[in-house]
Amino acid sequence: MELSDFSTTVGEWLKGEGPDSDIVVSSRIRLARNLADHRFHNRAAPAELEAIESEIGSFLRENDGRFAKLYYRMADLDEIERHILVERHLISREHAAAESPRAVAASDDERLSIMINEEDHLRLQVLRSGMRLAEAWGEIDELDNRLSRAFKFAFHAKWGYLTACPTNVGTGIRVSVMLHLPALVLTREIEKVFRAMSKINLAVRGLYGEGTQAYGDLYQISNQTSLGKQEEKIIDNIESVVPGVIAYERKARKHILATNHLQTEDRLHRALGMLKTARLLTSEETMHLLSAVRLAAAMQVIPEIPSSTINEIFLLTQPAHLQKVTGRALAPEERDIERASYVRKRLSTYV
Amino acid sequence: MELSDFSTTVGEWLKGEGPDSDIVVSSRIRLARNLADHRFHNRAAPAELEAIESEIGSFLRENDGRFAKLYYRMADLDEIERHILVERHLISREHAAAESPRAVAASDDERLSIMINEEDHLRLQVLRSGMRLAEAWGEIDELDNRLSRAFKFAFHAKWGYLTACPTNVGTGIRVSVMLHLPALVLTREIEKVFRAMSKINLAVRGLYGEGTQAYGDLYQISNQTSLGKQEEKIIDNIESVVPGVIAYERKARKHILATNHLQTEDRLHRALGMLKTARLLTSEETMHLLSAVRLAAAMQVIPEIPSSTINEIFLLTQPAHLQKVTGRALAPEERDIERASYVRKRLSTYV
Question: What is the ipTM of this complex?
Fold first, then answer.
């Protein structure tokens, strides 16, 4: 698959399928691993990083058919292409920005991906749409086992997997679910969710991870610590908490419809009206309006727009994808024009 | 013609025709007259007012075919019907509200109308779309002459026509043009127009006359004094001033398009988007959004919407007309629902 195909497709995690997909956009697990016979990334010279990339890359391409097509060395990609991978959640913003030798491998359906030489030698990720942590764990555990048969991972009998940053030592796991919580934002109850999560050591972050804003009412809930616990316990912890947040959001949606039915319908239809007529749309406003349309679809106020369409617009209007769709680099104001034009075209059939 | 026909038609002044009709909505002249052999309205007992109404009403119905169909005694109309006449600018708000015997006669095309027993015994009015004060003067002068042959008007050799309020003594004339000045509002230059008009003794008022707000960026410019000047001089004065205001508005429109082309297009298209999708619309917001759409049509940004359609929506979404269209009395929130529903239906064919 060429990177250019990314201008027309969305990855598995944006398919809008899976359990509770009206609220749970995606489930994600990543594992941090390092090769025992190499220095950590931050201590290794470029030549050693090159060797690591080559070693892991060759293995994947030769031994795992799933990674045969999507394998990119960052040095071979321009800035827009790197940011396409960020927007698809296949690599981190740091991985796109750094200059040292590094790469990413991904399965065709973008469920599985492996960053090579990010903060750790290996960052394995599985990304699924809907609430599917158990399935996700099965997939990433299988990948981890397969790799551990080929490579010797840095592992300490007492501490577990060793990682470049101490917060990842132990299991090296981060488990997160991305939730769409517009009703809790609207009723200003979202702060209560933050406080509740923080009490049980779970983090709440925005769309693109640490330090990013919750554009489009999308929030990621994830574990903070990975040391001294079994992977299954960490997953169980998140799995036991998320249904409560889902129920809380559903209750808020019902409450809004019950107490402000007309005002809510009016607000949601107007959001669609803005998207259908605007000539200038920033990325931020687009996410904000799409959030309303996603809510409208979930609440059966505008039932005819499939969530896959909303997700596709959501992804393809992000700056890098938009430039790929348009076929050229765009200045910020040009982006706002092209974004509005693309959104109008995509939504023209919905009233 | 029945009052119910008013739920589907607009009067001549909202046809969107005539010179400079992109900016000049309508031209209006009214004359205040009183019968010499009766007390002024504020001094007359109900029986005398009844006699006046009957005398003038009979004459009009019997001698002037133009007023044969539209003749209404206020006592025969309910509140909604009276307000329909106010919204059509056929009677004043005061004429609708007062309890004393009074009536209105109007020509089929609603160009000519006569309030009987408003503040004066007779208030003759001519209302034309576009900038047509000279034509309007010809029509009202002819009507005035015709009536003055049938009735003896209160007239003083030195002071001229005598009226209930001293501000109308002399010619009894008020000349006004209603202008759509959205670009001057947007560029905040409208205050300069106010100051310039006030210096030459012209008044600037909102849509429904004295003390009303300029909803929908509509402003009426009219003479303040009617004493000591010839009618033609008063008309000339307004006719000499209005082209400057028109040019000023046109310049502001060009300036907006030249300096903020995209932002302007975006704003105007969004206004149409709101009207096409909202589920709740107050009368005020509707006028505000229609003002943007009217501007968009005039600037060729959304050229496919005829100004007659905009004017029709403008009139038929006013509270009394809306209730006539719907066929029943509506509480304010019901009106906002029905108004939004009517506007969506009317604009559904425009993208």
Answer: 0.85
